[in-house]
Design a protein that fits this description.
This protein is of the alpha+beta class and 186 residues long. The chain folds into two domains: 7-16 and 114-182, no CATH class; 20-111, no CATH class. 21% of the residues lie in helices and 37% in strands. The strands form three sheets. Strands 7-1-8-10-9 form a five-stranded mixed sheet. The protein has a three-stranded antiparallel sheet with strand order 3-4-5, with helices on one face. Strands 2-6 form a two-stranded antiparallel sheet. Strand 4 (48-57) and strand 5 form a beta hairpin. Helix 4 (145-153) packs across helix 5 (157-163). The chain is elongated. It binds zinc ion (ZN).
Length: 186
């Protein structure tokens, strides 16, 4: 009897938009902010630069500045990066917002609710069990493997526990890729 998996699939976790920020507003006490269209502010003071990413409260529009660079020597920044700050390059907005260091320094967390999708290949009609799946995170969305697998396979979480062998802790949120194997049901 062969234990070779016959079906190998890839799943992709991809953002559909930028996440919101869980960040307490100083005016209205709302705890949700957005980067909106994505704007930086650059301030030069002699040879030193400050760069901020601007975010606004989703309920009262109050603008807050998140520190990206603080008193950085001009020469220490890559010219292409500096240009990106000046033109509000959307890719730079995304990469700064998703950088865990920015979140740590500015004391916010990302709210990914409704901001991502799981892309799975169309169902294989004659799929041979067991099925081997590799989950690839194209964006760092922290997700619990048991919930993601249940969602992707259309199974209850109890069934996931019975039928899935995973190389990652099923209940611990992760945003790094993992693989799992699904055994035949019944
Ligand atoms: Zn507010």
């Amino acid at each position: 009897m062969s234990s070779q998996p016959h079906t190998v699939l890839s799943w992709f976790v991809r953002r559909t938009r930028l996440p919101l920020l869980s960040l307490r507003c100083l005016d209205c006490r709302s705890d949700s902010a957005t980067t909106g269209d994505g704007r930086f502010r650059v301030n030069a003071n002699g040879k030193l630069l400050d760069v901020w990413l601007l975010v606004r409260c989703v309920s009262c529009d109050r603008t807050s500045k998140l520190t990206v660079h603080e008193r950085a020597p001009v020469g220490s920044l890559d010219p292409a990066e500096l240009h990106g700050y000046h033109v509000n390059d959307p890719r730079l907005v995304a990469s700064r917002l998703l950088d865990p260091l920015l979140a740590r320094h500015n004391r916010f967390t990302l709210d990914w609710t409704g901001a991502w999708r799981l892309h799975t290949p169309p169902a294989v009609p004659d799929c041979a069990w067991p099925v081997h799946v590799a989950v690839v995170f194209e964006d760092p969305v922290p997700l619990r493997p048991d919930r993601l697998i249940a969602h992707g396979l259309g199974l209850s979480r109890g069934e996931v526990l019975r039928r899935v062998k995973c190389d990652s802790a099923l209940r611990r949120p992760t945003s790094t890729g993992f693989t799992f194997t699904v055994m035949a049901g019944g």
